[in-house]
Every structure is written in structure tokens, then in C-alpha cells.
Specification:
The structure is a single chain. By secondary structure, the chain is an alpha/beta fold. It contains nine helices and eight strands. It has an eight-stranded mixed β-sheet, sandwiched between helices.
Length: 282
């Protein structure tokens, strides 16, 4: 895939492209970037123009310090589509990207959330809806059990060498105890959390149930276009009932559940997912 950049007002968007034909925009998950889509994009690029976007605050796109809501990403995506003069786009989103894809579609109808849209442009711009949606293990459903789930990660945000010294001491112990892989994930999380302000904002600014001002469950019935929802039965990140909420509340949506898949299904099941994306959604 070829990496390119485009200026969107004060922010820069990084994206990768491959193939030609009808446009598919791929929206990655939390702590991810456009690289996550390389396998699926390769499967679809024979007859589609596949564009994998680094969302605002991730990858090589701009990383402003904001109290992030999904509205920031809606604006970023809308400006990206307008800047590239794309039409009839098919949106494919994984996890956080699935949340964005559905929220973008709801916003395109002119229906909004009851709560204040913090730092969203007023009046909100109008834009056409996508041609279709594929939502893979989508986030964006209010779930109060998530509150405090990531509190244990807060020390990874501390800007002090003490954390790095402690991790250097623990690293060889983890290898001896056979926990090298788990420790490597923690190490990667520290790097990601310190370099991606969206991640920090979601841990620091969403401490109470009432902070979930931008979830989409109440507005899913406003989505009136071909929609495919793909779930992983073994997903330890997005509970199956979140995906079922999408499938049950979006009119005419198809729900496909991979019984043996976890949250990384866009890597482990990319060929099967590509086939589902190409199949008629309605």
C-alpha cells in the first residue's frame, strides 16, 4: 500500500491506498493505525480502491491534545472524504473504527445526540451518507461495566523514568516466569499510550458512566443502508452483545458471528471477512 498525506485544515491525515475501482475506506481500532488493514485490503484491491486512514490522534495523522469524543473523528473523516473528493464510499470499521463508521452515518442523517457535542463544529456540516457499512466487532455501545476497566493502565501514562526503570527490572523476571509475551504487550501499551493522545483521553476523561456522551445505541435505527455486522464469539474486548445490539437495531442488518475468533479477527480471518464484504449486504 502507498502512504500519502493530505492537509485537513489545521490537521494532517495520513492514509494508505491500494487498488482501483469503487472506494472502500478502512477505519482501524483503538491503538491501531492503517497498517492493520493490509491483509484485508490486499484481498479486496483487485476490484476496489482501498484506503486505510490513520484516524486523528493515531498513526502518522496529527495528534492534537483534545478531550476526544467520536465527534472529532466524524469531522476528521468528513473532511478527509471531501478533500479527496470521494463519492459513494463503503465504510469498513473495526472496533473503535466501527463505532466511527456508524456514528458518521448517523450524523449524516441530520439526527444528533441529545448531549452537547463538545468541540464539534457548530453548525454541524452536512455530508452524504456512505454507500454501505461493514462493522467488525464495533465499539460505541454504552456499557457501564467498562467504567474503571482500564484504571490499571494509568501508571503506564506517568511521564517519569521510574516506570521505565521498574519495567527494566521486571522484564527478565517475566522471561523466567514464562510471561515474556504478556510483558511485551504491556511494554507496547506504554509506548502507544504515551504517543497517542486519544488513548490517554479515553483513560483519563471517561471515568464515569455519564462521560459516555457519544455512544450510538439510541440512534442505530436511523441507519438506513446496507449493513454487515461481524462479531467474534471469543472476543475479550468487545462483548458479543454489543455486536448483537448493532445487528438487532440497524434495520435489515446482517450479523455474522465467527465462533472461533477473538478481537484480532481482521488478521486471523481476513480472507473470510473479505468474502463477506464482497457479498451483497441487503
Amino acid at each position: 500500500m502507498t502512504r500519502q498525506f493530505v492537509q485537513l485544515g489545521e490537521y494532517q491525515a495520513a492514509y494508505q491506498t491500494i487498488g482501483s475501482g469503487p472506494v472502500m475506506i478502512f477505519l482501524h481500532g483503538f491503538l491501531g493505525n492503517g497498517d492493520n488493514w493490509q491483509a484485508i485490503a490486499a484481498d479486496l484491491a483487485v476490484d476496489h480502491r482501498c484506503i486505510a486512514l490513520d484516524l486523528l490522534g493515531f498513526g502518522e495523522s496529527s495528534k492534537p491534545a483534545l478531550n476526544y469524543t467520536i465527534w472529532h473523528q466524524i469531522e476528521f473523516l468528513q473532511q478527509f472524504i471531501a478533500a479527496l473528493e470521494l463519492e459513494n464510499v463503503q465504510l469498513v470499521g473495526h472496533s473503535y473504527g466501527g463505532w466511527l463508521a456508524s456514528a458518521y452515518t448517523i450524523a449524516s442523517t441530520g439526527i444528533g445526540w441529545d448531549q452537547p457535542k463538545t468541540q464539534w463544529l457548530e453548525p454541524a456540516p452536512t455530508f452524504p451518507p456512505p454507500a454501505s457499512l461493514t462493522l467488525i466487532a464495533p465499539a460505541g455501545i454504552r456499557d457501564d461495566s467498562f467504567v474503571g476497566r482500564y484504571n490499571y493502565m494509568k501508571p503506564l501514562l506517568w511521564d517519569t523514568p521510574i516506570v521505565d526503570w521498574a519495567m527494566a527490572i521486571i522484564r527478565p523476571i517475566a522471561r523466567i516466569l514464562g510471561q515474556a509475551k504478556a510483558f511485551a504487550q504491556i511494554d507496547q501499551a506504554r509506548v502507544a499510550l504515551r504517543s497517542q493522545p486519544v488513548a490517554k483521553s479515553f483513560i483519563v476523561d471517561r471515568l464515569r458512566p455519564e462521560d459516555a456522551i457519544d455512544t450510538v445505541e439510541r440512534w442505530l435505527s436511523a441507519i438506513n443502508l446496507p449493513t454487515l455486522v461481524i462479531a467474534a464469539a471469543q472476543d475479550g474486548t468487545i462483548p458479543l452483545w454489543h455486536c448483537e445490539t448493532y445487528g438487532q437495531n440497524i434495520p435489515g442488518a446482517r450479523l455474522k458471528i465467527f465462533a472461533d475468533a477473538d478481537h484480532d479477527l481482521i488478521q486471523t480471518h481476513h480472507r473470510a471477512i473479505a468474502q463477506l464484504i464482497l457479498a451483497p449486504k441487503a
